[in-house]
């Protein structure tokens, strides 16, 4: 991997060690905005329900009763829909009727007209779907229809799709397959495509029912309630833990919130929240890697970034060559007191940011096929089924076949394959990636931002060391005992008034402030290596990058400690870092080599 790391202790004796040999070797406890440590207490008692929680419970109950009553009494009225040619013109209508898909429609239709067109398309051609990308409507084959058809047969599949745009309150259909995998794929697909329609299965019969109009839920929205809880997870990513909790309590993954994601191969403790009143369901969760305790209620959810830092207890294994206690304590003491470069850690990049493998970079350059190839490259962590599917893409390029081979949990790759099947031309590459979830697309761009930021800091340290320069951008230093400074940075006019802990660099790609000195040229030089400028056209794939800044240096809070154990073969470090700082970078600094 391309080097982007520099150590301020590079001239000192160094050693190597193994991190995360087991999950017990890496423990993380969140520190909340008030500086309080979040700990797993095991307390399972239900708290008394406050007034606002009772109001929410009553409002929700009344709403559900009214919604069910309304659904039972809604008469089904056959709508008279206009012919397709009246909406899109005779030429496009003929192409759709002939199955010459995909068909793009550049139009200035109002929202009501687009809804009507979608209803006409699904009613007349249930196998088709309509997408709106950048003001261009596109009609193509619907991959969801194939999943429904495999479960219910073609006739009932067409009924189900037509039901989604009708005003009928309910529809019952029987499975036409006994294959558990086919039914499972249908159950996983339905909420992602038709989440506005409830689905219940019993004894081979599936009942579809419309949710009441959201406008009529205002009485329930007047009060809000969130169930707050402490989550202790082990050997699970936040996404995996969130999925388990959501399934257990009957919520969407988007209804579970946390202040920050924690390491996967670790034991981590943090505060989370779930929408609504689900305390009893949370306490009934039975999962060996997920533990819940300390439940409370709140009227507001936990927002991303609302923490001040994390406490780490880390055990380094297999230290080689052996080091004396004096050398070890000296290195740790220097890092604890003098700080270290605030690089983004290797886990920020995963597989997708090797020197020539940035998905976001290929997207910005319009090299859509190359971006797909990066994503579809097998990795060491891929399971056999995933490797088989990715090799099939490499050998044949058959997107439809690959999409069917990929496991359902590989939703990003599956959506990309279906989109590439609908739009085979690379000229439509932006449409391939808009089919991928927004959070994933945004993460790819953040990876590229972080990579460039790291390279600029490396060049700065090589050229200027830890000097504060006139024209640098200045913000309050990071701390685990206070909220992070999220304002606009100041321009340094007197370097002697500040330390390296005050200096920040912008994350590139958006309209951020840049230093008014030689460092700005370092940014331009690094960006030019990739053929990029300071502003990126990320809107091509619907990603909006906002101005943000990151401190160049950070250090642990007071009270950090380190010791050699097991006769010097291993070491244990305990320290707390501010928000968005990487423990693996601190460990690399102590050992004198980057953990990449």
Description of the molecule:
This protein has about 600 residues and is of the alpha+beta class. Helices cover about 35% and strands about 20% of the residues. The protein is built from 20 helices and 23 strands. Helix 15 (about 400-405) runs antiparallel to helix 16 (about 410-420) and helix 18 (about 440-465) packs across helix 19. The longest helix has 27 residues, at about 440-465. It is globular, with a radius of gyration of 27 Å. Residues about 70-75, about 210-220 and about 350-355 have low confidence and may be disordered.
- Which percent range describes the beta-strand content? 15-25%
The geometry reads as globular
Q: C-alpha Rg, in Å?
A: 27 Å
Q: With helices defined by DSSP (H or I, 4 residues minimum), what is the helix count?
A: 20
Largest sheet features? 9 strands, mixed
User: Can you give the mean pLDDT?
Assistant: 85
Question: What structural class do you assign from the helix and strand content?
Answer: alpha+beta
- Oligomeric state of this protein: single chain
Question: What percent of the residues sit in helical stretches (DSSP H or I)?
Answer: 25-40%
* Unreliable stretches: 71-77, 212-220, 351-356
Cα(first) to Cα(last) distance is 8 Å
DSSP strand tally: 23
Please give a quick description of this structure:
With 596 residues, this protein is of the alpha+beta class. It is built from 20 helices and 23 strands.
What's the arrangement of secondary structure elements?
Blueprint: E1 16-18, E2 26-32, H1 51-73, H2 84-88, H3 90-97, E3 103-106, H4 111-124, E4 128-133, E5 136-141, H5 143-152, H6 154-164, E6 170-174, H7 180-193, E7 197-202, E8 205-210, H8 218-221, E9 226-234, H9 238-249, E10 256-258, E11 267-275, H10 279-283, E12 290-298, E13 307-320, H11 325-338, E14 340-341, E15 353-354, E16 357-358, H12 359-364, H13 368-375, H14 384-396, H15 399-405, H16 411-422, H17 429-434, H18 438-464, E17 473-474, E18 490-491, E19 503-506, H19 519-529, E20 549-551, E21 553-554, E22 561-565, E23 570-578, H20 583-591
Helix pairs in contact: 4-6, 5-6, 5-7, 11-20, 14-15, 15-16, 18-19
């Amino acid at each position: 991997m391309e080097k982007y790391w520099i150590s301020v202790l590079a001239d000192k004796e160094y050693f190597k060690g193994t991190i995360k040999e087991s999950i017990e070797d890496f423990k993380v406890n969140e520190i909340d905005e008030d500086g309080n440590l979040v700990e797993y207490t095991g307390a399972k008692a239900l708290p008394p329900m406050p007034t606002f929680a009772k109001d929410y419970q009553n409002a929700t109950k009344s709403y559900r009763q009214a919604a069910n009553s309304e659904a039972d009494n809604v008469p089904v009225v056959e709508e008279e829909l206009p012919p397709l040619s009246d909406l899109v013109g005779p030429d496009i209508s003929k192409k759709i009727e002939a199955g010459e898909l995909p068909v793009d429609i550049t139009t200035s239709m109002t929202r009501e007209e687009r809804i009507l067109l979608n209803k006409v398309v699904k009613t007349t051609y249930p196998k088709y779907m309509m997408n709106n990308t950048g003001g261009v409507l596109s009609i193509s084959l619907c991959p969801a229809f194939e999943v429904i058809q495999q479960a219910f047969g073609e006739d009932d599949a067409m009924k189900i799709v037509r039901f989604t745009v009708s005003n009928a309150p309910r529809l019952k259909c029987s499975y036409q397959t006994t294959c558990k995998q086919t039914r499972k794929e249908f159950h996983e697909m339905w909420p992602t495509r038709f989440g506005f329609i409830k689905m219940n299965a019993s004894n081979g019969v599936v009942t579809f029912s419309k949710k009441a109009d959201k406008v009529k839920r205002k009485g329930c929205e007047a009060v809000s309630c969130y169930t707050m809880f402490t989550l202790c997870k082990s050997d699970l990513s936040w996404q995996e833990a969130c999925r388990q909790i959501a399934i257990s309590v009957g919520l969407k993954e988007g209804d579970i919130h946390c202040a920050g994601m924690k390491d996967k191969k670790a034991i981590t403790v943090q505060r989370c929240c779930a929408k609504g009143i689900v305390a009893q369901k949370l306490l009934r969760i039975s999962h060996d890697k997920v533990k819940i305790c300390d439940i409370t209620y709140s009227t507001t959810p936990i927002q991303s970034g609302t923490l001040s830092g994390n406490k780490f207890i880390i055990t380094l294994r297999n230290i080689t060559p052996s080091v004396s206690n004096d050398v070890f304590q000296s290195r740790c003491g220097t890092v604890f007191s003098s700080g270290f470069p605030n690089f983004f850690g290797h886990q920020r990049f995963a597989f997708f940011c090797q020197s020539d493998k940035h998905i976001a970079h290929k997207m910005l350059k319009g090299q859509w096929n190359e971006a797909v190839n990066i994503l579809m490259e097998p990795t060491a962590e891929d399971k056999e089924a995933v490797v088989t599917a990715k090799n099939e893409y490499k050998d044949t390029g058959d997107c439809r076949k690959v999409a069917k081979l990929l496991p359902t949990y590989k939703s990003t790759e599956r959506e990309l394959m279906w989109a590439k099947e609908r739009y085979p031309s690379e000229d439509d590459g932006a449409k391939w990636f808009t089919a991928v979830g927004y959070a994933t697309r945004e993460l790819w761009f953040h990876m590229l931002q972080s990579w460039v930021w790291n390279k600029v800091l490396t060049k700065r340290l090589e050229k200027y060391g830890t000097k504060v320069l006139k024209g640098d951008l200045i913000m309050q230093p990071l701390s685990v005992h206070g909220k992070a400074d999220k304002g606009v940075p100041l321009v340094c006019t007197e370097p002697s008034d500040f330390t390296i802990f005050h200096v920040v660099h912008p994350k590139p790609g958006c309209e951020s402030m840049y230093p008014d000195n030689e460092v700005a040229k370092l940014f331009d030089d690094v960006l030019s290596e990739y053929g990029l400028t300071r502003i990126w056209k990320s809107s091509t794939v619907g990603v909006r990058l906002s101005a943000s800044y990151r401190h160049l240096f950070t250090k642990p809070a007071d009270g950090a400690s380190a010791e050699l154990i097991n006769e010097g073969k291993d070491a244990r470090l305990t320290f707390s870092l501010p928000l968005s700082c990487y423990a693996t970078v601190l460990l690399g600094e102590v050992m004198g080599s980057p953990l990449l």
